[in-house]
Amino acid sequence: MKVTRLFTMMVIVAVSVAVVWQSWYELRRLDWMKGPTRAAWQLPDRVVAELGLRPGNVVADLGAGKGYFTFLLGEAVGRKGRVYAVDVEDRIVSNLEMRVQVEDAPNVGVIHGELADPRLPDGAIDLVFLCNTYHHIESRSGYFKKLKQDLKKGGRVAIIDMRDDVTGIASLFVDEDHWTSWADLLGEMEIAGYTLEKRFDFLPVQNFAIFRAKD
Known about the structure:
The chain is α/β, with parallel strands linked by helices and 215 residues long. It has 2 domains: 1-35; 40-213, Vaccinia Virus protein VP39 (Rossmann fold, 3-Layer(aba) Sandwich). The protein contains 7 helices and 7 strands, in the order αααβαβαββαβαββ. Helix 6 crosses helix 7 (182-192). The chain is globular and about 75 Å long. The N and C termini lie far apart (80 Å).
């Protein structure tokens, strides 16, 4: 009887430790991915600098979310430029619209996109930017082939997405199926009608590449 009670207590303790560990891990993971420490690995200032934007450029931030990059892009293109923050979720779109008002960012416009169509103005975009959004898009080659109609001649697409080859402790923070292999990214964009302009390797857990639409 004593052995049975001891075993039961050990099981309860083990389960409790596992629950506490899971809760701690999820909190730390969310903090690392989306919290104030994100800048340490996302390096947003360097990312925006590498885009080579000029005052007056027009940029689309697809899957803008909370606007992590949206307003940095807005600063890069200046008051004479334009940033379209695109998302498909009602709540996110409403929050973005509110943030535009609070931050007094008249050069940022919010668009309620559709899963198969970002609803951007045709022939108006210098650069389409995506961060951790690419893997969510279905039929990606077809999507980006259609997207070419929204780009100006020689327009570019910058894609940042989680890698599939992350190792070590950092791999714990990459969600299952929330990544794209470099081979898939390169092949799909080639099929869609884009050429690789530049690939960057300074982000620790993400692919980062800029593609240019073929004439």
